[in-house]
Design goal:
This protein is α/β, with parallel strands linked by helices and 325 residues long. The chain is built from ten helices and 14 strands. Helix 1 links the parallel strand 1 and strand 2. The chain binds uridine-5'-diphosphate-4-deoxy-4-fluoro-alpha-D-galactose (UFG).
Length: 325
């Protein structure tokens, strides 16, 4: 049985990953400092509490467990926060990952699937971004993830580490069975904020900027369902079984939605009138981010199953109406 270490498995995407791995017959160990994750989200394997910045804790973990592969979701991931506090991002996302890579190397663990991000690209120069687009991040969050991708390239050459950096666009939605979902404090992401507002919770909904050069002036994003992300990780892990090197794949739906279109879709799904106020642009936000994920489709055989916005929002709404944590 393949034993997979899921770093950050108590968080939003990591918990969905743990469920998908268990469904696929893998053994799961979650390593998480619970700073943003939830103990109650760890339902498909043991939880080892710890921090990637605590290298001794990592060494103990790898001495007592024999992992076949690692999936790494631990990160600070808010663009605006990264602009305000870049050191925190470089420490957690870069130094923490370096510790993990070093310990994996000494333990002889040779496969890693890494959560990267569309934020590595910066401002797009083409309508859709494929992996050959230049990488010029405009915020420290994207820069921190790109630094890790560079380390993975070097580690492939020097130590034979096999890795797949999966560049997610906007992760969205929740487990359709309602076991797990998105729950951040404070919540900064658009879809959960819209849904919390529809439930009469949270602070007033704000739309950050309506003067972008887009069809209605608000930012365009490519929302991809969290279960489709998890499915791509499983495929990437299998790909590494017979492919050496450091690989990169975009993961997005290929369709862009403006902030206003997301709010409109949420009105239809929830049947609630959703009001908002206009606010200034948020620091670090690129105007448009839409994926070309052809490589993941062709090389990994990835077939996203949630293809439209209402279907994604439906699963998130199901969770927000009845969150378990
Ligand atoms: N937005 C609002 N109001 C809100 C929240 C967000 O108008 O209450 C807007 C943002 O300004 C942005 C869009 O909605 O234009 C999406 O914002 P999110 O915060 O939901 O997501 P981001 O695009 O900022 O970030 C996500 C991931 C990052 C990833 C990034 C790629 O969280 O990890 O996509 O750009 F890097």
């Amino acid at each position: 049985m393949t034993h997979v270490l899921v770093c950050g498995g108590a968080g939003y995407i990591g918990a969905h990953m743990a469920k998908a791995l268990a469904r696929a017959g893998c053994k799961v160990t979650v390593f998480d400092n619970l700073s943003t994750g939830h103990r109650a989200a760890v339902q498909w394997g043991e939880l080892v509490e710890g921090d990637l910045l605590d290298k001794e804790a990592l060494e103990r973990l790898f001495k007592t467990h024999r992992f076949d592969a690692v999936m790494h979701f631990c990160a600070l991931s808010q663009v605006a926060e990264s602009v305000r506090d870049p050191y925190a991002y470089y420490r957690n996302n870069v130094v923490g990952t370096l510790n993990l890579l070093d310990v994996m190397h000494h333990a002889g663990v040779k496969q890693l699937v890494f959560s990267s991000t569309a934020a590595v690209y910066g401002v797009p120069t083409t309508d859709k971004l494929d992996e050959s687009h230049s990488t010029l991040p405009i915020n420290p969050y994207g820069a921190s993830k790109l630094m890790v991708e560079t380390m993975l390239e070097d580690a492939a050459k020097a130590y034979g580490l096999r890795s797949a950096a999966l560049r997610y666009f906007n992760a969205a939605g929740a487990d359709p069975e309602g076991d797990i979902g998105e729950s951040h404090t404070p919540e900064t992401h658009l879809i959960p904020n819209v849904l919390l507002h529809a439930l009469g919770m949270g602070e007033g909904l704000k739309v950050f900027g309506d003067d972008y050069a887009t069809r209605d002036g608000t930012c365009v994003r490519d929302y991809v369902h969290v279960n489709d992300l998890a499915a791509a990780h499983l495929l990437a892990m299998r790909h590494l079984d017979d492919h050496e090197g450091a690989h990169r794949f975009n993961l997005g739906s290929g369709s862009g939605y403006t902030v206003m279109e997301v709010i409109e879709a949420a009105r239809k799904v929830t049947g609630k009138s959703i009001s908002f106020s206009l606010a200034p642009r948020r620091a670090g936000d690129p105007p448009v981010l839409v994926a070309d994920s052809k490589r993941a489709v062709e090389v990994l055989g990835w077939r996203p199953s949630f293809v439209d916005m209402p279907a994604i929002i439906e699963t998130a709404w199901h969770w927000h109406c009845k969150p378990r944590y």
